[in-house]
Amino acid sequence: MQLEETSKNQQEHTEQQYEFNALDLQSLDKEQLVKIILERRFSGPIPPPEILGMYDQAVSGAAGVILDMAQSEQKHRHNQENRQLDEAAKDNRTGLWLAFFITIIAIGAGTTIIVFVPGTGPLISGSLLNLVGITNLVSAFINGKQNQKEDEE
After folding, report:
1. What is the pLDDT of residues 105-115, one digit of tens each?
2. Are the C-beta atoms of residues 69 and 45 closer than 8 Å to each other?
């Protein structure tokens, strides 16, 4: 409990000690400057309001420009993601159609060989072609169901 109070007191003291104006950076020694830089980090395209205000004080209208840049970047990212999703869906549809045609051709060729070519050799060959076609259909159905479950999750 006492450690927590000591830590809070040190934090308050540190915050009070390093309150500064952007123009006062030259008066600080290297250790203080490093501590300030570590305390002033942020992530994301938009800085915290107080830093945004400093930008606006340094250059009139800079805050608006920063916000416009963040909005523009977000729109760009969304457009890129939508384009990637559309391309993936198009590739998926193309793959399904190609698999369908290959399956139909394999089953048709297998059936044609079985019906029109006499002997046991063509019977085996035709049966194998039909098996390949049916396996293609079943695997496409199973993969489609698995992809659908993954998309839902």
Report:
1. 888 888 888 88
2. yes
Contact 147, 131 (CB under 8 A): no
Q: State the total domains in the chain.
A: 1
Q: Which domain holds residue 93?
A: 42-152
| pTM value surpassing 0.90 | no
Establish if 128 belongs to a structural domain. yes
Q: What is the per-residue pLDDT across 75-107, written as a single tens digit (0 to 9) for each?
A: 999 999 999 999 999 988 888 888 888 888 888
| Residue 151 CB contacts under 8 Å (≥ 6 apart), including other chains | none
| 52 close to 66: Cβ distance less than 8 angstroms | yes
Q: Would 69 be classed as within a structural domain?
A: yes
One-letter amino acid of 67: L
Query: Looking at the domain assignment, is residue 87 inside a domain?
Result: yes
